[in-house]
From TrEMBL:
A GO cellular-component term linked to this record: ATP-binding cassette (ABC) transporter complex, substrate-binding subunit-containing
Organism (species): Paenibacillus kyungheensis
Alphabetic keyword roster: Signal, Transport
Segments passing through the bilayer: none
GO MF annotation, one: maltose binding
Transport is among the record's keywords: yes
Alphabetical GO biological process terms: maltodextrin transmembrane transport; maltose transport
Name assigned to this protein: ABC transporter substrate-binding protein
Pfam families for the chain: SBP_bac_8 (PF13416)
């Protein structure tokens, strides 16, 4: 009797172990035995809606696949991704911002996407840049993330001052901005040309260097900001605040974006990315504005630097890499990507999609950005994005306030960023 009981208990233990083993391997088994692809993204209503539509289309085309789509608040998403990859338990597919990708690809955490030569011809260089490492591709961008080349303007403010718009040259822009600036005893009430935001101070500075045919990367992933081009760019940029006084730092770092103040009527021209147009149309219900080209700082083409934006990657720890790669390739097919870019009001990263007349017909405000995509280049191997931008912004403020010279500020920026770059090797 005792022997039978012991045998029974042993059998129960074996069954429990077997079930536990099955459970631990069930991550990629969905309902009705379908293969399940776990897909993570950050919470953004337009993007999430676009993903849902494409997921439904993919599942209809692949009845043996189930997509487990999970979203997380942006404020915690990046840390959640890091924790999941560190714990060796990442999702099969993850939405990532391009600037985050190099950290994962250089550590072997991502699956290589094949056919890099073909894909490189199909995409613009700027959005693809951060997804490449050592000659290999580790993801597919879904957008061309840019803050340059276009600005929000109020045509009526130009008309009221008898000014033609948009300005054709940089000198025209500065002179118009002076005329359009409105002040009272409390300071500037309407800014003539507002470029004061965390992103735009940095991107405008970099674009001014590039438009002088200058460079800001030296050797060994170090920046070089003590060049004649960088000095001239920073002098011109800070002069807009300290000399021309067409904008100020009064709300810099506040809770509202510079575009919010534009849509409230507090600036005539605001240098901001095309993604802000949707905010004006949807949140502020404003229609008396346009999105127009920003003239080059020089007679050269409007060259600019851009980060690689949102895209999708496959974890190297995924047990279904083949299926996961197939899914992100589906998202990136021209017709699917076109619908995603139209729905999310984002700029297409692929040349054929950007040049599809349907995109501009659906998003007419996008003409200015589309016209300059060929002039963009990847911002480069920035190791710590937040630190990089902070050094430029902090020293910009010190220069504007007269606490340091342009030369000292650029030296500070170069030394601080290069030290950070070395720490992340």
């Amino acid at each position: 009797m005792l022997t039978k009981v012991l045998n029974y208990l042993i059998l129960l233990v074996l069954i429990t172990v077997m079930l536990a083993g099955c459970a631990s391997n069930s991550k990629n088994v969905g309902s009705s035995g379908k293969t399940k692809i776990v897909f993570w993204a950050h919470q953004e209503s337009a993007m999430n809606d676009a993903y849902h539509k494409l997921i439904q289309a993919y599942e209809a085309k692949h009845p043996d696949i189930e997509i487990d789509f999970q979203t997380f608040p942006y404020d915690v998403y990046n840390q959640k991704l890091k924790a999941s990859f560190s714990a060796q338990n990442p999702p099969d597919v993850a939405e990532m911002f391009g600037t985050w990708v190099p950290e994962y690809s250089k550590n072997g955490a991502l699956t290589e996407v094949p056919n890099i030569d073909k894909i490189s011809k199909e995409y613009y260089p700027a959005p693809l840049g951060a997804y490449q490492y050592n000659g290999k591709l580790y993801g597919l961008p879904l957008e061309y993330n840019l803050e340059n080349g276009g600005m929000l303007i109020h045509p009526e403010m130009f008309k009221n001052k008898g000014l033609e718009y948009p300005p054709k040259t940089w000198d025209d822009l500065v002179e118009n901005a002076k005329i359009l600036t409105v002040r009272n005893d409390n300071g500037i009430q309407i800014k003539g040309f507002d470029f004061i935001s965390l992103d735009n101070i940095t991107f405008t500075f970099l674009s001014m260097i590039l438009q002088q045919n200058g460079k800001y990367w030296g050797t060994d992933n170090h920046v070089s900001f003590q060049t004649p081009e960088a000095i001239q760019a920073m002098n011109a940029l800070t002069s807009l605040v300290s000399v021309d006084k067409v904008t100020d730092l009064s709300v810099f770092g506040g809770q509202l974006d510079s575009s919010d103040y534009f849509f409230r009527g507090n600036s005539a021209m605001t240098y901001r990315g095309p993604w802000t147009v949707a905010s004006g149309l949807d949140n502020y219900k404003v229609k008396d504005f346009e999105y127009v080209p920003v003239p080059s700082f020089t007679n050269e083409n409007p060259y600019f630097a851009a980060e690689s934006g949102w895209g999708v990657v496959v974890a190297s720890k995924s047990e279904i890499q083949k299926q996961a790669l197939n899914f992100i390739q589906f998202l990136s097919e021209n017709e699917n990507l076109l619908q995603w870019n139209i729905s999310t009001f984002t700029v297409p990263p692929k040349k054929e999609v950007a040049n599809n007349p349907k995109f501009l017909k659906e998003n007419p405000y996008m003409k200015a950005p589309l016209d300059i995509l060929k002039y963009g280049q990847w911002i480069g191997p920035v190791a710590d994005r937040d630190y990089f931008f902070k050094q430029i912004n902090d020293n910009f403020q010190l220069i504007v306030s007269g606490q340091i010279t342009v030369e000292t500020g650029l030296s500070n920026i170069e030394q601080s960023i290069n030290s950070s770059q070395d720490q992340h090797k």
